[in-house]
TrEMBL record, chains A, B:
Species for this entry: Methylobacterium soli
Primary localisation category: cytoplasm
Function: Required for both de novo synthesis of the corrin ring for the assimilation of exogenous corrinoids. Participates in the adenosylation of a variety of incomplete and complete corrinoids.
Protein name (Swiss-Prot/TrEMBL): Corrinoid adenosyltransferase
GO-annotated molecular function: ATP binding; corrinoid adenosyltransferase activity
Domain of life: Bacteria
NCBIfam families given in the database record: cobA, PRK05986.1
Amino acid sequence: MEKRKAVQDAEVAAKTIEKGLLIVNTGPGKGKTTAALGLALRALGRGRRVGIVQFIKGAWDTGEKHALAAFGERVAWHTMGEGFTWETQDKARDIAACREAWAKALELMADPTIGLLILDELNIALRYDYLDLDAVVGALQARRPGLHVVVTGRNAKPALIEAADLVTEMGNVKHHFSAGVKAQEGIEF
Amino acid sequence: MEKRKAVQDAEVAAKTIEKGLLIVNTGPGKGKTTAALGLALRALGRGRRVGIVQFIKGAWDTGEKHALAAFGERVAWHTMGEGFTWETQDKARDIAACREAWAKALELMADPTIGLLILDELNIALRYDYLDLDAVVGALQARRPGLHVVVTGRNAKPALIEAADLVTEMGNVKHHFSAGVKAQEGIEF
């Protein structure tokens, strides 16, 4: 263990580039959004403001909203008020809602007070081609130098993975739903 | 998408068991601890108290500590004050420190005000056989019915995975360290 740590220390010391990261949390397992929330907590603890745009209505419930309310104005939150849900029935409305959310994302990316921006379930909007992939990836790549962006959702597009600095695939090893356990307040929502 | 959601809704409705979950976040990728932090935020937002025991000294830095301080007494925090670090040099001291941390974990498991308990990097202590695996898994299985426990760390033991309700493997698809980017405040710590 000592040796491995020494090697790790040397490797870490050799890293010299400091930049805002493009982080992608994808895969079928749990933890994509919660890991983004954990980064929000970490950034808030470092005195940064955090922006959050949800691309799926209802993907987050009141648990995290209540908790983040403790940080007041230091969290800028935008939930899609209409349209795109898991039960989408009106494609034109959904596309309009996605575009509105993306416009909000661009606005927060341009806001120099924001140090971390979470684009929750953006991968879903991209998967259904509700936003232009090239335009989204291009804007993410052109982000301010110090801005960290976290994109969550299953089935991240290859072009986004290519552009990202850090990509984690959450794999589902075992899930309690298969044992008849229901979604529970404080865990799933 | 509509059909898949309908199937999901039916599946979710069929789940009737409500229980505190044993959750394991493992694998080589990022997000094991941050996803646990996200669950802490969610639980705090639901009015629950959260217990945190860190089995590796220095695994968490000040970012998350500062942020969680916003919740005051609602977060019960125990960091191993001595011993077991990534650079361990004194096995007897490390084992003693792990036992002390585990005693704290048992104390928090018995505390009825705690709704979620995070045992951060417990998998490392188990991997080095610094704690008795059977005793740990047995105690986790015998937890209070409503208590959710999250265990993090690479290389989760098969017996723990077997006992768990929800296991997620964080896979490392792409990491910025390999591109020469250094660990940064607010992201890695």
